[in-house]
Amino acid sequence: MKYKTIENTIGNTPLVALQRIDSATSSQRGNTILAKLEGNNPAGSVKDRPALSMIERAQARGEIKPGDTLIEPTSGNTGIALAMAAAIKGYRMILIMPEDLSIERAQTMKAFGAELILTPKSGGMEAARDLANTMMQQGQGVILDQFANPDNPRTHYETTGPELWEQTGGQITHFVSAMGTTGTITGVSRFLKEKNPAIQIIGAQPAEGSRIPGIRKWPEAYLPKIYDPSRIDTQISVTQDDAEEMCRRLAREEGIFGGISAAGALWVATQINAQVENATIVFVVCDRGDRYLSTGVFPA
Question: Mind telling me which Gene3D superfamilies this protein's record contains (predicted)?
Fold first, then answer.
């Protein structure tokens, strides 16, 4: 008998209907809000998909081989996913991340065998990306570059989008995703728009002054190269307070232990819910809440 290996468990995540949050509005308007549970992936986030895809495809093209050193700037989830994928495929993994990100993320990366380099909080992700580029130029390793690598959105075009279409029986009308590297929203949009151009693609962005892990509003010079604004119909800003409160509600009222960016996407989904009728609104629960325990978002 041939058994599955751990990488075979990535994807095909559940899609579940919310039962209480915004239920009165949903009922009055004939809408359904659905949550795509990407925390069910083996390393706990939607980033498992592009992490494995980027390594496998770079290896197939002969750009890397087992034993090589990989470098990646990350805010957390991609780093965890790449650490897992590197462990599976036999690569040394160096991850560069801002020092203010949650301790759970750093500990999880190390558990998978990755080496961490922390950059000053004041420099944000931009400083982490700059250092990674410097290290690659010095010959210290290869950057897969989630921000520019077409294998990132490609995997969502090939897997996440088709799953959503099949799981909703083609009834999806709105897709809401947090915008970080923009790989998820770009790839899913491409697939869904090919199936039905009327499907609305909504990006969740942080409001001015808000720091929501996993959601970014990039300065022009650092915009991800994979970002294609034509793939997004609407962008809605969410405050840090609204995202954190929705994070707590998601766990308490729905039994879904999701992260803060996932809750930000849900908050945006509730705004859409109040504006439309007879809609099937899907949002991505991009990771699990347990990697945010030290942030104080959940009551002790």
Answer: 3.40.50.1100
217 is catalytic: no
Average of per-residue pLDDT values in the chain: 94
- Give me the percent of the chain exceeding a pLDDT of 90: 81
Which residues contribute to the annotated binding site for pyridoxal 5'-phosphate? 77, 180-184, 261
Q: Which of 26, 36, 45, 47 is catalytic?
A: 47
User: How far, in Å, CA of 96 to CA of 201, rounded?
Assistant: 31
Domain ranges of the chain: 6-40+153-285, 47-143
For residue 103, what pLDDT band results from cuts at 50, 70 and 90?
confident
Tell me the one-letter amino acid at 23: S
**Element (DSSP H or E) covering residue 246:** helix 240-254
Is residue 185 within 8 A of residue 160, CB to CB? The reply is: no
Residue 154: what pLDDT?
A: 98
Whole-number pLDDT of residue 1: 84
Q: Do domains 6-40+153-285 and 47-143 have the same CATH topology?
A: yes
pLDDT band at 155 (very low <50, low <70, confident <90, very high): very high
Domain at 47-143: CATH architecture: 3-Layer(aba) Sandwich (3.40)
CATH match for 6-40+153-285 among 3.40.50.1820, 3.20.20.80, 3.40.50.1100, 3.30.1330.60: 3.40.50.1100
Phi and psi torsions of 175, nearest 5°: -120, 125
Q: Averaged over 12-31, what is the pLDDT? A: 98
